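Milestone M4 deliverable, item 7.
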Amino acid sequence: MTTGAWIFIVILGVLAGAVGGFFLARRYMMNYFAENPPISEDMLRNMMMQMGQKPSERKVKQILASMKAQSAKNTKKNK
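Output delivered:
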């Protein structure tokens, strides 16, 4: 094989690895955020208290459920 062919194969391998790594990392992060949302109940309660609202347990659960539903909708839409 010539030197040009080796260079082409190496460049092709690097590009394939970069593209494959990007999509694997993206899938991993999507699954991670679906299982572990970046906001918790305590964080939501604190935000509501800072905004001057009294956070009831029902309202906190309702907001978390709507956020989870929105996340599922966006995940389904992106597939």
